[in-house]
Amino acid sequence: MDTPVHDRRRFLALTAAAATAPLLTACGAGFGGNENESDGSAADDITGSFDWRRERGTTVKALLNKHPYTDALLADLKSFTDKTGIEVEYDVFPEDNYFDKLTVDLSSGRASYDVFMLGAYMVWQYGPPGWLEDLGPWMRNASATGDEWDQGDFFPNLLQAGQWNLKAGAPLGQGGQYALPWGWETNVVAYNTEVFRTLGLKPAETFDELVELAGTIKRKAPGAGFDGMYGIAVRGSRSWATIHPGFMTMYARNGLKDFTVEGGRLTPAMNSPEAVRFTEDWARMVKRGGPPSWTSYTWYQCSSDLGARKAGMLFDADTAAYFQAVKGASPASGKIAFHPGPKGPDGSLATNMWIWSLGMNAKSRRKSASWLFLQWATGKEHLRESAISHHHIDPVRRSIAQDGAYRDKMKDLPGFIETFETVVDQTRIQFTPQAQFFDATTSWASALQEIYGGENARSVLDSLADDLARKVG
Questions:
Q1: Are the C-beta atoms of residues 424 and 397 closer than 8 Å to each other?
Q2: Beta strands in 321-393 (DSSP E)
Q3: What is the distance between the alpha carbons of residues 15 and 148, in angstroms, rounded to a whole number?
Q4: Is the same domain home to 323 and 449?
Q5: Structural contact between residues 435 and 26, judged by C-beta atoms closer than 8 angstroms
Q6: Per-residue model confidence (pLDDT) at position 57
Q7: 141 with 256, same domain?
Q8: Do 91 and 119 belong to one domain?
Q9: 24 is in which domain, residue-wise?
């Protein structure tokens, strides 16, 4: 089996830096900004009929993170070269230093790499300095983009995640297209069907029910033959990654915002009365139903505990459960089911996402060949192969999500397809785009730890909001 879900959440030196300082400071309608202007894009140089082999003999250099999606791409790379005549040289780095390497290369302007992996949140750092190519002009040019790429086949919310006008606080889905969706994760609840059946439980439909359910499992499961089992695994380490999966999903479903935006100015909102109450309830849920060493928990511990039958539930990326649920992967495999998780008070299933994307270096000297590579890597043929033969389990394209072979592959995971279909159109980046994202969310995770430890939630969140107002205002 491929290496389990990758530790994007530890985010190497950038994440470490985010704990104490911002990574970077930075100050139209339709994909790629104004449809009548492309600011002299190199895409304008591509004319005539579309031709996959227009750049044959060229070599493109890719920077990739060690990841199951990368494994799938490399396994299929020969088909790209056969199709285009373009060779691809690549470097693969582990997450511990991948983004470090990418940031250094982009900031230097050397353009050692033409194309690379990035997350949508990184657009908020890499976009404003002008490091990322706006892909909108390439997408609109029929000479550069073949009909079979079929932009309309992407789930639109996933395309919008990489589209931004580079202004802090501005919503996604407008401005330039700085990244293309490649593979993603939605955040839902996975649960151990065996303990639910034994204790006569059913998945929670409200947050209050989830809090109660987590406590019930922690109290009753050990006496029912599930030694050492607790109720719910959620992340708790002092990292931005603690905020973005289950916490931010439930926060958004309650109609809460990280920042409000008025007149282009960002104001922290995580200390509103409603946000304070929610945070208190989240900390109470973890206290009563979570793991004893919660403040050290990353995605890895959460995922492992579900697989080891230590956690009755997991509220995190669906991939974190998937790699424990597949046959033979863990002691709990075959006994893990998926559920959208609790609705908000108004029935909301707003869900936060993580999305691995592909981008192009704005300084690349091989943009035409690089666009052909991006077009192939995010195209139907490659992504279908990756979904069926590898582990692209959350398709970015509707056609693959409906493909019979893909659905047959996933049919033995109870509730997976149904859960995906329930939340896919409501899964978005729920954060406000701004360059201090990693610093803000790391500080937020630290505040959550303090509240879990018994500090007054109102006081802690007021202090956090005051600190962030000075940094992002």
A1: no
A2: 336-339, 351-360
A3: 38
A4: yes
A5: yes
A6: 98
A7: no
A8: yes
A9: 8-185+354-420
Phi-psi region of 355 (alpha: psi -120 to 50; beta: other; left: phi over 0): beta
The span from the CA of 451 to the CA of 279, in Å, is 8
Q: What is the pLDDT of residue 13?
A: 30
Query: 385 and 398, same structural domain?
Result: yes
Which of 28, 263, 55 is CA-nearest to residue 164? 28
And the tokens for 304?
Answer: 């492992």
Cα–Cα dist 125/425, whole Å: 26
Q: What pTM, to 2 d.p., does this model score?
A: 0.90
CATH code of 403's domain? 3.40.190.10
Distance CA 85, CA 81 (A): 5
What residues of the chain score a pLDDT lower than 50? Answer: 1-38
Inter-CA distances, 439 with 25, 164, 241, 464, 467, Å: 11, 20, 11, 11, 11
Contacts of 46-52 with C-beta under 8 Å, sequence gap 24+, read: 46/141, 46/143, 46/144, 46/368, 47/143, 48/143, 49/143, 50/142, 50/143, 50/144, 50/145, 50/146, 50/147, 52/83, 52/84, 52/146, 52/372
Please give the DSSP secondary-structure letter assigned to residue 292: T
In whole angstroms, what is the distance from residue 249 CA to residue 64 CA?
28
3-class SS of residue 386: helix
**Within a domain: residue 207?**
yes
Kindly report, residue by residue over 62-106, the tens digit of the pLDDT: 999 999 999 999 999 999 999 999 999 999 999 889 999 999 999
Give residue 393's identity as a one-letter amino acid code.
I
CA dist list (Å): 344 to 53, 188, 264, 274, 419: 51, 13, 28, 13, 16
Let me know whether 318 and 201 are in one domain: yes
Instruction: Name the domain count of the chain.
Output: 2
Residue 301 lies inside a defined structural domain of this protein: yes
Tell me the C-alpha distance between 33 and 37, whole Å: 8
- In the 8-state DSSP scheme, what is residue 184? E
pLDDT at 38: 42
The answer to whether 31 touches 177, Cβ cutoff 8 Å, is yes
Cα–Cα distance, 161 to 121 (Å, whole number): 9
Beta-strand relationship, 87-93 and 163-164: unpaired
